[in-house]
Amino acid sequence: MSPSAAEFTTSTSGADPRYPVGRFERSATITEADRAAAMETIAALPSQLRAAVAGWTEAQLDTPYREGGWTVRQLVHHIADSHGQSSTRLRKALTEDSPAIQPYDEKLWAELPDSREAPVAFSLAILDGVHARWSYLLHQLSPEQWQRTFVHPESGTWTIDAVTQLYAWHSRHHLAHIAELAKARGW
Fold this sequence. Notes:
Distance between the termini: 46 Å
Helix content: 55-70%
Strand content: 5-15%
CATH superfamily: dinb family like domain
Radius of gyration: 16 Å
């Protein structure tokens, strides 16, 4: 049975610094308003992320967003990696019948030299292009296409609708990490 995008809601406890906007939870239904809000969030992420780190020094970018967490630099590069993967998975779901997708180890990717050292401008540029195309494509989908699926070997079957809700949450989740760090440090 394939989860629908409506099967997700966001908890708002915020008590756990790992989940400042709450954990992503599957919801039973997704409305047109939920879908529109998710598309808006995905479209806005690149400019919001750029604004969140604008003017930050190298030392600030190399500060972990929470104890035991990635640095802000790693976080920005992670977002580009993750959202690029999601955009590709969307295309696979639209062009193949419930394809099995290849997962990646985000923790190992975050330890690669480009994630640890490269300018965040590299990933901000990637996000501009990926999100522009991703948003454009989402706005073109028919009702039937929103229900197309892919299969993740670890988390199961996902509809395009559901994964769009997940990545809207993912955008808010990581923006909140940066905002909470800036607030805590008075930046």
